Fold:
Amino acid sequence: MTKVIPRIQAGFMELLPGEQILFNKYLKIIRDTYEEFGFVPQETPIVENADVLFAEIGEDTKKEIYRFTKGDDDLGLRFDLTVPLARYVAMYFNQLQFPFRRYQIGKVFRGERPQKGRFREFYQCDIDIIGNGNLNLVNDAEIPAVINRVFEKFDLGDFTIFINNRKILSGLVNSLGETSKIDEILRAIDKLEKIGQETVRLMLVEDLSIKVADAEKILKFVKITGNNKEIIKKLEEFEIEDELYRKGVSEIKEVVEKAINFGVSEKNLQIDLSIARGLSYYTGTVYETKLLDDRIKGSVCGGGRFDNLADSYTNQRLPGVGVSIGLTRLFSQLLDSGMIKVETSSVAKVLIVPMDVVSNFCLKIADEFRKAGIPTEVYTEEDKFRKKLSYANKMGVQYVAIVGDQEEKEKKVALKNMLSGEQELVDVNSAINKIKGK
Amino acid sequence: MTKVIPRIQAGFMELLPGEQILFNKYLKIIRDTYEEFGFVPQETPIVENADVLFAEIGEDTKKEIYRFTKGDDDLGLRFDLTVPLARYVAMYFNQLQFPFRRYQIGKVFRGERPQKGRFREFYQCDIDIIGNGNLNLVNDAEIPAVINRVFEKFDLGDFTIFINNRKILSGLVNSLGETSKIDEILRAIDKLEKIGQETVRLMLVEDLSIKVADAEKILKFVKITGNNKEIIKKLEEFEIEDELYRKGVSEIKEVVEKAINFGVSEKNLQIDLSIARGLSYYTGTVYETKLLDDRIKGSVCGGGRFDNLADSYTNQRLPGVGVSIGLTRLFSQLLDSGMIKVETSSVAKVLIVPMDVVSNFCLKIADEFRKAGIPTEVYTEEDKFRKKLSYANKMGVQYVAIVGDQEEKEKKVALKNMLSGEQELVDVNSAINKIKGK
Structure:
């Protein structure tokens, strides 16, 4: 029989068991933290109607959609979790309570050309808070608190949540009389880190016809440094007579102060006036998070405040604020760089290893261990004893409970700690206590 | 601006927050139980290469595949989790330990015509144990133990795990000299409950040209009743001289005995000789699980033993045994029938409600609650107090911590139990203990 070559598409992450266990650990931290902050779970279909997807999409992303027909239906795979959120809130508007605080963790799809570090199928882990008509600024301060908690629990070293407010730079641009070019200027500034100051200067001056002196002013402005208090003080002292600018400065001041009260460590939150986020969608606070370890490239988490979530689907005004963690890309970098390592390929805490065949006594012990809440596996195959222990080693299981004739007669197990090598003959209850670390 | 109508495809389940919280409860029970039995997590892509999918598929299912191209790639959405498992085991064969015990919980896609109770996107929750060359029969006994634990935790009333062995009926058919018709006969028997005995008799006699007396014998055979011991005794006493038959009887006897030792209650496990499962794929033990509550139609969980998992992709012989819970369909029936009800739309245990604006004291309390492990939400909007309490009621949150000037001065909160209506002024630590039920 001719075989089909077993393979998957490039750009789709698939993990070995030990890696998957590790991935799920991070996924669980995110989910648990989101719920700790009272965000409710949401799950939308992977497949959406194409017109729903295409109502809220840029030209560049359009080409990346996996689009197809089935019968008369024109369909596509979701490319983010924000469009489904917008569609959902518009669709169930009357059945939801506002502010609507939801999280969604799920795979999204972008059929771009695969390249290192880019995925076609990847996890987004989103939180958003959507208001009905209005949404208090205190919500902008809670988002960094969630991210701060997630990355503290991740325990991947120091990290910085960079925060900015698009009103500030927009106000500066207003004051220069270049209001019509705001989106292009913000997009150029967003590329600073990637393409460097000189190229951005050229973009501003040549592509956008900004006066040389003004371009200089903008570039100098976004490079203002200092701690949060110092930056805010400088911003307040600038003589920029623009209402939007003043609003942006007062917003960022309040958001930073409240975020600290929400539990964000001062050292983890930093105003950075060059953070612009590419999407014109954002209208106020914007966030990006970076790990200090330079093995992790780029932002691991981004988001911001928007004025209106779902105007493609409804007339309701739905302002919101949210953020998304790109877990697939982060995890892939963590693994590739060796920052994290597979420690076990087993979710069981104990493996029951029969000396000979699997007796009913072995099964009963497994049942008792499991009922005591201990994840338990039984080695079922009639292999040589050495092969059974080698399996335990390769799986990286912590305890092995060996059962032979003698143990069965005494209703005991020989409990071996695979790390220390210690082994002792104990009854089942003692084994349970040992394994549970009591 | 013209609006796109916010909607989803028929046959895709999408839930409101309270329903989603409930759904996730069942999902978590399944995941936790699978891990308690030492199954490792697996996650394969939603999108597979079309030739990989089509290598292992029946003609009927082919039409249901969501198939599409992207660039030069011919792709499809996975329609079950077994084909991806087969592809995975063949692909990573040298990196896996055997027996390979994995679970996968994920969405699969079948673009059939939508009808009540049928879904186009639905969860499968699969466990399988795959051996390298051989796989001990004790594994067939562990599967019902997992299912038994899951449905005990589900707490949806009594349930029965029906068990059979396809070798028994195949052996009987052999003994009648109709070996070549085994698959068709089993498929006909599989329809017994659906189409009734008379129609199956006609299928056997007219479509499959089975002698009337033999058809009678088969139909009588599959209706043998009694408890497990009685049925096994009857099977052993039949004078059917066929090796496969004898093997089937001895297997089912061993599997039932070992399943009981693995912790399955006698009352939850029942031999039923009419359980055949449609797929010719199964070669030995087969399972189906039903709830006794007749509001839940059909089997909620099915599976069995197979001789070779992945012969479309590899020459390795990979026998296995597994089972799948169809959670989407079960959940939809539970909700529609009123067997389960939404109790809360909140994952938070406490909502902090400021009498006036959200002060920094409110944010600090939220931080302390969360650090103590209490899922906490803050009501952020500047609404009337009555509206805030109405939100708490509608969300179904258990505790409300009211904070006004007086509370802030005393560093206390007015903690209100929304169920009992009790309210008391307590400091933050006492509030934490109350909420945690200490």
User: Anything to note?
Assistant: Chain A touches chain B through 107 residues (CB under 8 Å).
